[in-house]
């Protein structure tokens, strides 16, 4: 008896299936679609019908979540949480359309219309994706080398007096130099512009990682070493199982700093010497005065950088589960 | 069962011979004498308390016995051999539990076995030690999830898992609330009785010293010098209300110059 009752109630569905804000967002997208196709553009714009249909379709999907989101699992939970954002983006899109395509308050071609951006993504995405992939590979290589070098240098500095005697002055003098200052030399010295860029990115990453690792090792509670020693630890154990894990929170701060600076170095290196990647794409688009492509590249670049930072955060959360009160990204 | 896994052979409790030990630190270029001609012997398997005012040099003495520092003058021998480097047979438990925050309770307790490279073969000692201090079910907890008393128990388990012959306790209960403290005092005694090791407890708590130890060595203010050596000839388990304990307490306070407070 009771079982049937519960199933019955489940069939009706919880009252919270309706997501009013999500519905509002759907209305916003329908509005944007209508406005785009019925208010004539100031100048000729491509793909008006296609974009309008896309927005309408988006409105339909969002609307579906608005009506039944409460029963659509994780995706539904997401729209519930992000409903205000979906609505805000719809409104922003309307404003953008009006300011560029419809009234020209923001002049062309410096502020491309939604249709122009749509065209760029529709026809140029293979090239952008390829560029982004190239950038990620270049950055990944440089970052990994730099992180490994910085980490080893930092550990050695924190551990060995002789090593820190010789390395600290060098690090203090050379480290703060922006990696991009090496650029003209690096392109000369290295056989390929790619290897030069890897070096520059590694260089810019290694400095903050080395400094933070060093200070992390220096800040390790002396008692940890004494406890480990009374328990029979060898020097190797003290480094690998005491100093390094204790210093890891600092190391991650260094990795974040290194990753941020390496973005800048990557873009500059690609703009000035490497014949591929998002930086190069930006440069290339500028050569053609293709403003929509430049915005497109910026958009992809932001996604890439944000994605990489998120990845690093995930790794940190995994590695430092034992820490309490860490920032969630 | 539990005790068996951690049992040291009874006669393996270590003897300690402290002979004319003096020690000093350099404090901003000026020598700070901390221990002044300290001599005493401790027989194997004994439970001895070192009692003295805060800052007199008790921790320093314990660190010397552990081998973490070396005395400026005099000699310290454990089982007749001069103390060299720290060794897992003589384990120091600090006032702060100082657990490794990145390790779970289990991994913290396993630290010594891991450092000595015998974790694979002797892993079951870890479970036994965790059970012995009553922390079953907390294996996977991280130190920041433990209360002060639990953390100090983990520190004890981390020491006991090595089957030490000599346990050096530096005010291990000093920072606990009074109820936890009383409970853990009783636990310390039963751990000592089960394992047969030699226990040296540093404390500035007169009551604790007399309640736990078979013998209380009383130190004066810095530089520490022995002012009294009181045997506590009472069987275990002891009772806090025992009039003989009260009498000993009065004596000890007298040696510390605190008679007036009695
Ligand atoms: N590493 C050190 N360097 C300088 N002075 C120290 C050092 N360790 C302890 N002392 C000093 O030695 C004295 C005795 O310290 P300690 O042995 O910790 O005392 P207790 O444990 O009896 O409270 C204190 O005055 C303390 O400041
Ligand atoms: Mg002390």
Overview of the molecule:
The complex is a heterodimer of chains A (329) and B (262). With 329 residues, chain A is an all-alpha fold. Chain A has two domains: 3-105, no CATH class; 125-323, Orthogonal Bundle (MetI-like fold). Chain A has twelve helices and no strands. Chain A has helices at residues 2-12, 20-38, 48-68, 73-102, 114-159, 161-174, 183-189, 193-218, 222-230, 235-272, 278-287, 291-319. The longest helix of chain A is centred in the middle third of the chain and has 46 residues, at 114-159. The radius of gyration of chain B is 18 Å and the shape is globular. Chain B has a six-stranded mixed sheet, sandwiched between helices. A four-stranded antiparallel sheet of chain B has the order 2-1-4-5, with helices on one face. In chain B, a hairpin with a 2-residue loop joins strand 4 (73-78) and strand 5. Chain B is built from ten helices and ten strands. In chain B, 34% of the residues lie in helices and 24% in strands. Chain B has one domain: P-loop containing nucleotide triphosphate hydrolases (Rossmann fold). In chain B, helix 9 crosses helix 10 (243-255). The chains are: A mainly alpha (329), B alpha/beta (262). The complex binds adenosine-5'-diphosphate (ADP) and magnesium ion. Adenosine-5'-diphosphate binds next to strand 1, strand 2 and helix 2 of chain B.
Which ions, cofactors or small ligands are bound in this entry?
Answer: adenosine-5'-diphosphate, magnesium ion
Q: What is the mean predicted local confidence, pLDDT of chain B?
A: 88
Biggest sheet strand order of chain B reads: 6-7-8-3-9-10
Binned, the helix content of chain A reads: over 70%
Q: State the oligomer.
A: heterodimer
